[in-house]
Amino acid sequence: MKKLILSAAALFCGTLMFAQMNNSDVTQNGSMNASTVSQTGMTNDSDVDQWGDSNTNTVTQDGVSNDSDVDSRGDNNTSVATQIGNDNESDIHQGFGTGAGPNDGNVSTVDQTGNNNDAHNDQYGDADGSDNNTSSISQTGNDNDSFVDQIGDDNVSDVDQTGNNNDSFVGQYGDGNDSDEDQTGNDNDSDTFQVGDGNESIVRQVGNNNDSNVTQTGDDNESEVRQGTVGDNNVSDVDQTGNENFNFTWQDGDDNNADLDQTGDDNYSYVDQWGHQNSSITDQQGNDNYSDVRQGYDGSGMDHISSVVQVGDDNFSDVDQRNGDGNMSDVTQTGDLNINDVNQRGNTNEAIVIQTGDENDADIDQFGDDNFAGIGQDGNRNDADETQTGDGNFAGTGQLGDDNVSDMDQTGDTNFSIAIQEGNLNNSDTDQIGDLNGSGVSQIGDSNIATTYQEGNGNGSTTIQQGDDNESYVSQIGNGNGQFTSQTGNENDSFVDQIGDLNNSNTTQVGDTNVSDVDQAGNNNGSSVTQTGDTNGSTVAQTGNFNTSAVTQTGTLNLSTVTQTGNLNVSTVDQDGFGHSSLVNQVGNSNISTVDQNGTSHTSTVNQIGNGNMSSVTQND
Description:
Elements: H1 2-20, E1 23-29, E2 34-42, E3 45-53, E4 56-64, E5 67-75, E6 78-86, E7 89-94, E8 107-115, E9 118-124, E10 134-142, E11 145-151, E12 156-164, E13 167-173, E14 178-186, E15 189-195, E16 200-208, E17 211-219, E18 222-227, E19 235-243, E20 246-254, E21 257-265, E22 268-276, E23 279-287, E24 290-295, E25 305-313, E26 316-323, E27 328-336, E28 339-347, E29 350-358, E30 361-369, E31 372-380, E32 383-389, E33 394-402, E34 405-411, E35 416-424, E36 427-435, E37 438-446, E38 449-457, E39 460-468, E40 471-479, E41 482-490, E42 493-501, E43 504-512, E44 515-523, E45 526-534, E46 537-545, E47 548-556, E48 559-567, E49 570-578, E50 581-589, E51 592-600, E52 603-611, E53 614-619
Parallel strand pairs: 1-3, 2-4, 3-5, 4-6, 5-7, 6-8, 7-9, 8-10, 9-11, 10-12, 11-13, 12-14, 13-15, 14-16, 15-17, 16-18, 17-19, 18-20, 19-21, 20-22, 21-23, 22-24, 23-25, 24-26, 25-27, 26-28, 27-29, 28-30, 29-31, 30-32, 31-33, 32-34, 33-35, 34-36, 35-37, 36-38, 37-39, 38-40, 39-41, 40-42, ...
């Protein structure tokens, strides 16, 4: 019986000690305050201070060593903290210790389930009061940490963390701000900082070791970050300074990095990263800029790199790295109303766009592997397009001036094309179909036109224009053809057509209103035309193989026509003076004709039909 009584006494003392180890301290000043504290476990501690009227507080702790500290000041504040687990801590301060001014209608809710969770809510008032703020924190897991600080009116914060070792910080300073953070997984970190009015931030993290930083300074900014429908180790950094800026960042995969800086008003940024190890940097400085970046959009791809810098107003940039691996795009826009579009499909393609000025337009499309495309525009209303289909192609366009137009199309492998335009209203069009073709165009002046068409392999073309209103048209169909055209002056015209293999044409025009037309059909034909002066005209037509024509015109209003049909024919025409006319027609093989005209208004006609004929004409004053 004594043992039974002693055992009952020990049980009674143990129960009493269990209850006594919980600590609750509630202080309420004012009218109609309500506080409910329920603690189950050992060493739970709850401290509630409510100053004002109609405050409501509910604390429920179930576990070991939970701690809850609630300080409320003002009217109609509501605070609810529920902790189930071990070593949880929740601190809620609503207008406490802020000095003069009420703190009305604030609501804070904390729900923690797990071990060693920590949550901190602060909603402070000011001299005019801080009304109707709402903060909700829910943590499920172990060692999660959340901190919310709201100063102003009508701010809303909602934090949900499910997993272990997640960390969240929310700071809102102003009125009408809204922050919503959801973290599911382990070791995720989210920091949101809002200074101003009407800002909105949404963060969704699913996976492990994801990191999100959002800073909004100004009014009515909007940011949404989604990391990892599936994926780990993604990083997103958003910094918005100004008003009514918009950001949307979506990262699916592992080890993606997105960095956004917006300074100004009404800027728009969209970043969508699918795959692994993609990197996107967007910097917008000014107003009404638009940037859209898509990396690995079809769910595949990795190691894509995109950099977009916009300085000015109303600039537009679209970068699409949809599939493949290792594509790189670098876009810089300085000025207003510039447009850029980069589209990359394949592997290790590189695109660079630099726009300085207003209303420039650049478009790059790459389909294949290891292609390079670059566009540099300095001026206004320039337009450049580069399209590459194949592998290992190189395209480069440089525009300095206003209203220049350049278009490049490459289909095949290892083609090379470059166009340089300095001046205004110049136009260059280059088309390459095949492999190992090369084209170079240089236009210095105004209103020049250069057109180059290459179909086959190993063709080469160079066109240089210095002056105004010059026109050059080149067509090469076959393999190994070469062409060089140089125009210095104004209103010169050059036409070169080559069909076959290993044909070569060299045209040099110095002066004004000169015209040269070279047509070569066959193999290994060669043509050289040199015009120095004004209003000279030369026509060369060669059909066959190994034909050679050389025309030199020095002076004004000279006219030369050379027609060779057959093989191994040679024609040389030299005109020096004014108003000369020469006609050479050779049909057959191995014919040779030489015409030399000096002085004024000489006329020569040579017709050779057959083989091995030879003619020499010299005319002098």
